[in-house]
Design a protein that fits this description.
The chain is of the alpha/beta class and 281 residues long. 43% of the residues lie in helices and 14% in strands. It has helices at residues 20-31, 43-55, 71-84, 107-135, 148-151, 157-177, 195-201, 222-233, 266-275; strands spanning 11-15, 35-40, 61-65, 89-92, 139-144, 182-189, 244-247. A seven-stranded parallel sheet has the order 3-2-1-4-5-6-7, with helices on both faces. Strand 4, helix 4 (107-135) and strand 5 (139-144) form a beta-alpha-beta unit. Helix 4 (107-135) runs parallel beside helix 6.
């Protein structure tokens, strides 16, 4: 679909790049000629993913541990990256979410979502943007959002809030940073199942026929998202700025994706709270 060297010469950082959609995008970027940096909290996972990318697509792939919830950690990571060469593209992919009855969320549970999804995204964006502007270097920021920015979404309210805020950042910086040669764009994916997201968002007891009610009758394929991301960060999309592209097969035109949870019983919610990872309570 794309020229082999579409991203040749581009240095790209993908947050949360060790697995799932981050890894799928990173792999495609390397196939298209990019030099890649993956960051996340689990260095062992990042290194394993980077090694597979080096062996299979073949390319320059580095891994760096960073907790994007910590602004100082983000600054240290960016300093380390820039010591080798400037970034050209930042992909804000790292995020957290889980289903919960909103009125029962603790402050800690809300912060477990807001910290990486909103604060971490902002920290990474500001750190990259500051360096680009100081050096007179152009750049692209791609943020992976959600159709909850359009419909809202019950039972994942902190995530919907955070993603909507990042969309506001995307639109605002398109105006502020556009004259400085920096583009900001976003994707709102629909259902692109990953092991991590499925465990948090589609536990046992949820509607099992949801994918068939998509207007296209299926979920998305990771390669489809990776191809869209590759286009948006490439020079071929150089006149797209401040926009969010929805890629969900038209699902958001029918439903926000949370209506089945309105029928859950107290017992089902209690089971879900008990099963939630300790970091999200």
């Amino acid at each position: 679909m794309f020229e082999k060297g579409l991203l040749k010469g581009k240095r790209i950082l993908v947050t949360g790049g060790g697995s799932g959609l981050g890894a799928a995008m990173g792999r495609r970027f390397v196939e298209l000629g990019a030099d890649l940096v993956l960051c996340g909290r689990r260095l062992e996972l990042l290194e394993a993913t980077a090694a597979r990318m080096r062996d299979d697509p073949g390319g320059k792939v580095a891994a760096i541990r960073c907790d994007i919830r910590d602004g100082a950690d983000v600054e240290a990571m960016m300093d380390a990256i820039w010591r080798d060469a400037p970034l050209d593209i930042l992909v804000n992919n790292a995020a957290a979410t889980f289903i919960a009855q909103t009125e029962l969320l603790s402050f800690r549970a809300a912060d477990a979502v807001l910290a990486p999804t909103l604060h971490g995204t902002m920290y990474c964006t500001l750190a990259a943007g500051k360096r680009w502007i100081e050096a007179g270097h152009g750049g692209v920021v791609l943020s992976i959002l959600s159709t909850s920015t359009i419909t809202g979404r019950a039972f994942t309210v902190p995530s919907a809030m955070a993603k909507s805020a990042v969309l506001a950042m995307t639109k605002s910086l398109a105006v502020e940073w556009g004259p400085k040669g920096i583009r900001t764009v976003a994707i709102a994916p629909g259902a692109f199942p990953t092991a991590g997201a499925s465990g948090q968002l589609r536990p046992e007891g949820r509607d099992e026929g949801w994918a068939l009610r998509n207007p296209l009758g299926r979920v998305g394929e990771h390669r489809e998202l990776a191809d869209l991301a590759s286009f948006l960060i490439s020079d071929s999309a150089g006149y797209i700025n401040g926009e969010m592209v929805v890629q969900d097969g038209g699902a958001h035109l029918r439903s926000s994706g949370a209506e089945d949870l309105l029928a859950w019983t107290d017992a089902q919610w209690e089971k879900q709270r008990t099963a939630r990872p300790k970091g999200g309570t």
